[in-house]
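User: I'm preparing a small set of examples for a lab meeting where we compare how different chains pack in three dimensions. I only have the primary sequence for this one, and I'd like the structure in token form so I can line it up with the others. Please keep the answer compact; I'll paste it straight into my notes.
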Amino acid sequence: MKRRPKRTPCSFSLLAATAAAVGLAGCSAPTGPPGPTGTLIGTLRAAGGPSGSGGRALRGQVTFSELDGSRKFSVTVGASGRFSVPAPVGTYTASGSSPEYEGGTGLCRASERVVVTKDATSRVQVDCQEM
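Assistant: Understood. Below is the structure token output for the 131-residue chain.
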């Protein structure tokens, strides 16, 4: 017969405290963010510029910030300029940056707020305005 290690109340409370701290820190499980989620798909692109140039895909990073400031997360965008990420339900502003736009110091923005709803896909376009 195998002997089980004796559990003490201290080890249980330490586990509970650790779990609570992780939850408060806003970390997510490896399978995605906690709570109800939707999917955010979008693009990071250069917009504007000379007439007829159209938009071009940019690599970089897009950050989503909940309006009340309670949540913030980022996604890395590859050379295609496209991304798809699971996101907690909420309303966000979206901003981005790219080393291909003003040396990475220019701020790129979505023109509208992004609303993520449960089990739905929301789209966002983050533009870096070129002159």
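A couple of notes for your slides: The domain at 37-130 is CATH 2.60.40.1120 (Immunoglobulin-like). The first strand starts at residue 37 and ends at 48.

User: Perfect, thanks.
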